[in-house]
Amino acid sequence: MDDTTDVTGGADEPGWDVDPDDEIAPAVVMAGSQLRAWRRDADLTVGEFAERIGYGEDLIRKVERGARIARPEYLDMVDQVLGGNGRIAAMKEVMAEARYPRKVRELARMEAQAVEFVAYNNHNIHGLLQSEEYAGALIGTQRPAYSPDEIERMVAARVARHSIFDRLPAPELSFIQEEVTLRRPIGGRMVLRRQLERLLEVAQLRNVEIQVMPTDREDHAGMKGLMEVLKFQDGTALGRCEGDFNSRPVSDPKQLRIIELRYGIIRGQALSPRESLAFIEQVLGET
């Protein structure tokens, strides 16, 4: 049997390897050892198990030693073949978190703790507002190009962050988008249309405000680039502004005041939330 393909002809996924230095690696190793114990309790060799679940022996060995993140469909098949009654499939949550890049996990944790979040974007739709389809197309434009598996992994991580909209109590969320981000047809016209529809949908949430900065504005306080500020329950905050402070996240109150001042000015220069919704609807009609 070829160790680089499964018995159904699918490719072994190189993008799902685990970084041994990643903080979540021990959890993946633990899950792998549990999977190995389940297989051995069923008195199955790796070769016999591979035939039953339809995956390559090399992939199985890597998953069982914690060197590879198991896909959800892999865990579902293992649960079915070994009679786990959902206990093996329940590992999907751990594996899903491990699947996301470390930086994304850290960002998601901060977003989960934030009571207020503001963001100005000038090149593309903010990640929290992106549709899955748009996110995939956007990541696919980057160079050097990512592999299809890497794109899938990053898209899944980005979409998982959308859980911020389901939080209770709901955080206050404010987004300002440059007009050009609403018109650039990333992924094609239909992808853009569905992205605009998502913006209109999210903007209906009572804790969300979306504003548009028209291209024809003569005064614009955001010419240095994107900016974000997250505020937390304990009164602390974290911000970032492209072009200032080496574009690194800052928590110093003096530096945060500069970012917040600039964001407040942009907010006043942009269309109001009501005007912005009408503008997005207009662009949707033109797309």
Q: What distance separates the N and C termini?
A: 51 Å
> Given the C-alpha coordinates, what overall shape results?
elongated
Q: How many runs of DSSP E, i.e. beta strands?
A: 5
What string, H for helix and E for strand, traces the elements in order?
Answer: HHHHHHEHHEHHEEEHH
SS element count, helices: 12
Summarize the structure.
Helix 10 packs antiparallel against helix 12. This protein has 12 helices and 5 strands. The protein has 287 residues and is α/β, with parallel strands linked by helices.
Give the SSE map:
Elements: H1 25-41, H2 46-53, H3 57-64, H4 72-82, H5 92-99, H6 102-113, E1 114-121, H7 132-140, H8 148-160, E2 172-178, H9 179-183, H10 189-202, E3 208-213, E4 227-232, E5 237-241, H11 253-269, H12 273-286
Parallel strand pairs: 1-2, 2-3
Antiparallel strand pairs: 1-4, 4-5
Helix pairs in contact: 7-8, 10-12
Spell out the key features of this protein.
287 residues; alpha/beta; five-stranded mixed β-sheet; 47% helix; disordered N terminus
Characterize the structure shown.
Helix content is 47%, strand content 11%. It is of the alpha/beta class and 287 residues long. The protein has a five-stranded mixed β-sheet with strand order 3-2-1-4-5. The longest helix is centred in the first third of the chain and has 17 residues, at 25-41. The radius of gyration is 22 Å and the shape is elongated.
